[in-house]
Specification:
Layout: H1 24-33, E1 38-40, E2 46-50, E3 59-64, E4 85-90, H2 107-119, E5 126-131, H3 133-147, E6 155-159, H4 178-189, H5 194-197, H6 200-219, E7 232-237, H7 245-249, E8 259-264, H8 270-273, H9 275-296
Parallel strand pairs: 3-4, 3-5, 5-6, 6-7, 7-8
Antiparallel strand pairs: 1-2, 2-4
Length: about 300
């Protein structure tokens, strides 16, 4: 595993933030032009972003981002994951290379489309990772792929999201006026740094996708189904104000396979401050799963 250092960033009161404080404008520029190395649908809209193709990889890891951001948040991971793993970011409409598209505000629109493109890219074993909103999408995509007869993932990684059907105790906010909506986002998650809040044009670019993503979470209804067969590893922040240990342990009931919970230092966005520990744990779990697959003849 590479030991390349992550660029220093400023952080919020919890020690981490949804965006790096000093990179809002740069992220906007990247967002408008980030379309290289994409697997696109017929009219050129990328769903799967391959930052560094790895034809010799033993496994493909599909990564779903958290609310309001795009696949580029995973770009630093390509240098830190094990060389046997090829990482592919899932790009939802309304951000980065798809900034001109209307974002989807219901999970029922996202899951079938994401599953369709992933299914067409399953020429080797695969795993799924998602953080917060991304965890919920990744979970439902895994269930959708199973219903369609696709191979199971060798591992499912879910981060900073309560297990369904545990209810969110907080009131809905996706329908609030802009100012109130942003204030509540800050209060709950400290999700937008002051540098972005000061840039009205940038904020207006980010707001539609963020609001749509919150609507996805708040309108989601869990439908009971058989547990998945793949192992599930769950990650959470020790100081997450909204997602507690019991919320995370609920994922145990969604698998017939192995289950593991790891709590890492930090708040809801420990994914940034604990990136190396997170990726090392994921790489270890994936390599173990690949080893089990070879023993059983599935890999």
């Amino acid at each position: 595993m590479s030991s390349a250092a992550r660029p220093a960033s400023k952080s919020g009161p919890d020690g981490d933030s949804a965006f790096e404080e000093n990179s809002g404008v740069e992220k906007c520029a990247f967002a408008m032009n980030s379309s290289q190395n994409n697997l696109a649908n017929g009219d050129g809209r990328p769903w799967l972003v391959r930052f560094r193709p790895n034809p010799s990889a033993a496994l493909r890891l599909f990564c779903f981002p958290y609310a309001g951001v795009g696949a580029s948040i995973f770009s630093p991971w390509v240098h830190r994951l094990h060389s046997k793993i090829e990482m592919v970011g899932v790009q939802l409409p309304g951000r980065e290379g798809r900034i001109r598209e209307e974002p989807f505000d219901r999970l029922s629109r996202i899951v079938p489309e994401a599953a369709r493109f992933i299914r067409n890219d399953l020429d080797r074993p695969y795993a799924i990772f998602g953080h917060s909103l991304g965890a919920l999408i990744g979970f439902e995509v895994a269930r959708c792929l199973r219903r369609e007869g696709a191979p199971d993932p060798v591992h499912l990684f879910l981060s900073a999201r309560r297990a369904p059907p545990r209810p969110d105790p907080l009131p809905e906010i996706h329908g609030l006026p802009d100012a109130e909506f942003l204030e509540e986002i800050q209060r709950r998650w400290d999700g937008i740094p002051s540098a972005v809040l000061r840039e009205a044009e940038l904020l207006q670019l980010l707001l539609p996708a963020l609001r749509a993503d919150v609507a996805v979470l708040e309108t989601y209804t869990h439908l009971q189904g058989e547990p998945l067969d793949c192992p599930i590893s769950v990650f959470g922040g020790e100081n997450d104000r909204n997602i507690g240990r019991e919320d995370l342990l609920g994922w145990r009931g969604h698998t017939r396979g192995d289950f593991r919970l790891r709590l890492l230092p930090g708040g809801h966005f420990f994914i940034r401050t604990q990136q190396q520990a997170l990726l090392e744990a994921m790489s270890d779990d994936i390599l173990q799963a690949l080893g089990r697959g070879k023993e059983s003849g599935k890999c």
